[in-house]
UniProtKB/TrEMBL annotation:
Superkingdom: Bacteria
InterPro entries for this protein: YqeC
Protein name: Putative selenium-dependent hydroxylase accessory protein YqeC
Organism the protein comes from: Desulfomonile tiedjei (strain ATCC 49306 / DSM 6799 / DCB-1)
Length: 258
């Protein structure tokens, strides 16, 4: 258990170049963990967002490249060549301090100059689980894989806005009552719903479910049994189901359906 890289756990091979990450519970951490592994393989990596993220720290990304005010069409490529891994955004938003996301055509350009492009394509305001609204997630249609993230710290919690982002939508998709307990069936119901965890996945492209924060489960809950229960309910809806702890930089994959 927990001897694999995150790339191995998620089934990312050389054909998977553009990866969109959706859901809650650790999207940003997963994006930068994958970038570290790819950089270790001497690959040129762009991390970015189609929504908004906080600017990365030096431990996450060595270089941040802002498009606004840049009049050199080759500057992005040159910075990528220099750093190996860059985080690309349009600008820093004054009100929130967040990095403003880029449009799909810019993502496509990044694909043309980088070996891999990792996109945070959703927002969850720090909650472990979310349901997407009509305009979410923002997944480019040329993405090679979508990874949907759910934080297992939602298990056993009441369905309230402190734990769930887009609560009303979540209740509608899962059939749970307000304040009802989130269990493995609730997680699976959301994950496999075409307007939930599978929303935005390009046709015939792999979808992966990553269950984060396995380290927070109490002694009474076996991570393997929790993952097995969720996997049985999600069978053949996702190509892979993986689990682990981004905090501990540890992961494993338990089910592959493709």
């Amino acid at each position: 258990m927990f001897r694999k890289t995150f790339m191995e756990c998620l089934g990312i091979d050389s054909r998977i170049r553009v990866i969109a990450i959706t859901g809650g519970g650790g999207k940003t951490s997963l994006m930068f963990q994958l970038a570290r592994e790819m950089l270790d393989r001497s690959e040129k990596v762009v991390t970015t967002t189609t929504t908004k993220i906080f600017p990365p720290g030096p431990d996450q990304s060595p270089c941040t490249f802002l498009l606004d005010g840049c009049d050199n069409p080759r500057a992005l490529e040159q910075e990528l060549e220099r750093c190996g891994h860059i985080t690309v955004g349009r600008s820093i938003l004054e009100a929130s301090g967040k990095l403003q996301g880029i449009a799909s055509d810019v993502v496509e350009y990044c694909r043309s100059v980088a070996d891999r492009v990792l996109i945070e394509a959703d927002g969850a305001s720090g909650r472990p689980i979310k349901a997407p609204e009509a305009w979410e997630p923002v997944v480019p249609d040329f993405s090679d894989m979508v990874v949907h993230v759910i934080g297992l710290d939602c298990l056993g919690k009441p369905a309230l806005s402190e734990t769930v982002f887009r609560l009303e939508k979540f209740l509608s998709l899962t059939g749970l009552d307000p304040g009802g307990t989130i269990d493995v069936k609730t997680i699976a119901r959301l994950a496999v719903h075409p307007d939930g965890g599978l929303k935005g996945v390009p046709s015939e492209k792999p979808a992966v479910l990553f269950l984060n924060k396995s380290d927070v489960l109490g002694a009474e809950l076996s991570i393997k049994s929790v993952v097995d229960d969720i996997a049985n309910l999600c069978a053949h809806k996702f190509d892979w189901i993986a689990y682990g702890s981004l905090k501990e930089r540890a992961c494993d994959s338990r089910h592959r359906f493709s």
